[in-house]
Amino acid sequence: MTVKVVGGGLAGSEAAWQLARRGLAVELIDMKPQKMTPAHHSPEFAELVCSNSLRGDRLENAVGLLKEELRRLGSLILECALATRVEAGGCLAVDRQGFAALVTEKLRTHPNITIRSEEITSVPPGPVIVATGPLTSAALSKAIGEYFGEDHLHFFDAAAPLISAASVDMDLAWRQSRYDRGTDDYVNCPLDKEQYLAFVKALAEAEEAPVHGFEDSGVFEGCMPVEVMARRGVDTLRFGPMKPVGLRDPRTGREPYAAVQLRQDNAACSVYNLVGFQTHLKFPEQRRVFSMIPALRNAEYLRYGVMHRNTFLQSPKLLDRFYRDRRDPLVAFAGQMTGVEGYVESAASGYLAAAAMAAQLQGRPLPEFPQETAIGALALYISDSRVEHFQPMNVNFGILSPLDRRVRKKAEKNLAIAQRSLAIIDEMIARGI
User: Fold this and answer.
1) 312 strand-pairing partners
2) What is the spatial order of strands in the sheet that 301-303 belongs to?
3) Longest Cα pair distance anywhere in the chain, in angstroms?
């Protein structure tokens, strides 16, 4: 039986390799070089189009942990990245051309992999892994929308920042739903008039991120960035996402002048979303300006706000923890279209989708990575059916299971989480995952 893998980015390349090394015949289908997107310039697989950095390399960093998990599990992407590494301080950076060429060579020379250059315009019957990325062609995007239903396919990533719940100063915030409706679902961060005016001024003057040529500025029409609202008038935010109506500050007994609301973003209550704060500001500007909100002055950002073209699925309603269609487990998806954000995260989704597909076809137990691991936490995040406001996510320690003990220093806590994860990975490898 041949497994089709559609898409030759990092997720598709990893998936094809993992299927092939497990003894399955693989047909890797990519539309390059027959058809290119505005962001691609090379016919090679695994082209890095945005940066030559695969981000932090220390275990105290969640993406560093994810890379180490993948390395131990025999990831093609990590093997090729380490072989083409260039100096970049504490980051894993690669020679982009050398990296893509090495991945392509390994895929083209593997005896179990055949390559086909063709634009796929429908979701193939299983067994298949679709990994066509955030710049999926218009024809295939339309087909995926029809396959799942148009309501489950999103074409723009307009996401507010996510912060660690533990980093919110609750001495300066309180829990309350507006008009006391619900069960105190929101954390409210108040500002007095002076604080609010200074915040609006800084927000209106803050520096935005550049818009790349392949992005669509039309994203701003359907979801206005918070900095654009600030420029439209000093009170615009007070009548929008920062309106204080229906709230009562327990410290004063009165309605605050303005308030930012935080909404729970995961089932473990460890991650919060800044409600209505979709933004296109540069990441350092987000940290600088949003720290002017008193309760968020020491906020730890798990994901900054982003606004760009990004085709992604409403995965919690559609996919299981193995990236498989809940209706048809022989049809799987991988990469950024599933809601994992970033190159390394895409490779991890390709790894798990392929490992699960191979196990399923070969009659072996499915590889159940727990939430204590970075690979497992990502997969459980994108498949958690309890999530109501799903947005793509980078790996972060906020989505991993917390420790069963208190560790005061952040770096020591993160390292302990990483060591726990790697012990589980080593145990799974020993069992022959």
Assistant:
1) 154
2) 174-175, 186-191, 258-264, 271-274, 162-164, 301-303
3) 72
Rounded Cα distance between 230 and 217, Å, is 19
Q: Are 348 and 66 in contact (CB under 8 A)?
A: yes
* Length of the chain (residues): 433
* Distances from the Cα of 89 to the Cα of 54, 59, 97, 156, angstroms: 12, 15, 20, 33
For residue 355, give every residue at least 6 positions away whose Cβ sits within 8 Å of its Cβ, in sequence order, or none: 18, 22, 367, 433
* 8 Å CB contact between 247 and 256: yes
In tens, the pLDDT along 71-99 reads 999 999 999 999 998 765 567 878 888 89
Mean pLDDT of the chain: 89
Indicate the residue type of 202: A
Other Cβ atoms closer than 10 A to 28? 28
Per-residue pLDDT tens over the stretch 149-182? 867 766 555 678 889 999 999 999 999 988 877 6
Kind of pairing between the strands at 2-6 and 306-313: unpaired
| Euclidean distance between CA atoms 38 and 326, whole angstroms | 33
3-class state of residue 56 by DSSP: strand
Residues 163/299, Cβ–Cβ less than 8 Å: yes
Partners of 157 in the β-ladder: 308
Relative to beta strand 301-303, strand 271-274 is unpaired
DSSP assignment letter at 87: -
Q: CA–CA separation, 324 vs 330, rounded Å?
A: 7
Structural domains in the chain? 2-157+311-430 (3.50.50.60), 162-304 (no CATH)
Cα 299 to chain centroid distance, Å, stands at 19
Other CB atoms closer than 10 Å to residue 171's CB: what's the count? 9
User: Where would I find the H helices in 334-385?
Assistant: 343-362, 374-382
| CA-based end-to-end distance of the chain | 21
pTM of the model: 0.74
Residue 119 contacts by C-beta under 8 Å, 6 or more apart in sequence? 31, 34, 35, 137, 139, 140
Question: Under 8 Å CB-to-CB from 265, ≥6 apart: which residues?
Answer: 162, 271, 272, 273, 387, 389
pLDDT computed for residue 273 by the predictor: 86
Place of tokens 């159940």: 368
What gap in Å lies between CA 369 and CA 53, rounded to an integer?
A: 26
Regions of the chain with pLDDT less than 70 = 37-40, 49-53, 87-90, 150, 153-158, 182-183, 210-223, 266-267, 308-310
Dist CA 72 CA 79 (whole Å): 10
Under a CB-based contact definition with an 8 Å cutoff, are residues 76 and 17 in contact? yes
